[in-house]
Amino acid sequence: xxxxxxxxxxxxxxxxxxxxxxxxxxxxxxxxxxxxxxxxxxxxxxxxxxxxxxxxxxxxxxxxxxxxxxxxxxxxxxxxxxxxxxxxxxxxxxxxxxxxxxxxxxxxxxxxxxxxxxxxxxxxxxxxxxxxxxxxxxxxxxxxxxxxxxxxxxxxxxxxxxxxxxxxxxxxxxxxxxxxxxxxxxxxxxxxxxxxxxxxxxxxxxxxxxxxxxxxxxxxxxxxxxxxxxxxx
Length: 233
What we know:
By secondary structure, the protein is mainly α. It folds into two domains: 7-48, Orthogonal Bundle (Arc Repressor Mutant, subunit A); 49-210, Tetracycline Repressor, domain 2 (Orthogonal Bundle). It is 62% helix and 0% strand. The protein has helices at residues 9-23, 30-37, 41-44, 51-74, 80-97, 100-107, 113-128, 133-154, 163-166, 170-177, 187-204. The two termini are 32 Å apart.
């Protein structure tokens, strides 16, 4: 009988992320992961101390996806505005593709090596452009928070009130009958909000020499970059 393929940490993390995507966070356990990988549960403990350690590895994998996309999409860009636009789009698109990982990342301490490296790299870029550290940190946090909030809204269950209840709320009813039938941010909404945020950052945080107001060349509105690097993580 042929020997089963050797279990790798990368394969385990990839499969754990797939379980989260397909079945939700309540389905992920060491036993469930072992079943999907067709291995015994004890074999997983050669790679992970426990479920918490596995979840840390999944969070790190998501951060590496984001970092890889940001690096790829900003390689030929020049200007903080274009770069922060890419940061926002990469965060939002990654968490829209893997919505269950958003809560996972938000509930865990920021200790992922990839997360720390990504933040450090972006801060270094802004500092290299003459930003002060407090202003650069605030700008990056604002952009990340906006993108993650937009991804959370996109992953929500939407609006499901019946017509009788809506009749008591005429302004809301009009909004649902118009441009936002499920009260979710669309692509145009996201890009509009991002432009407003970057305008505020340019006005209040960016150094005078770097106060760009016109959008830089980069990913066109509504075409967020692909965030999956070649290795699938």
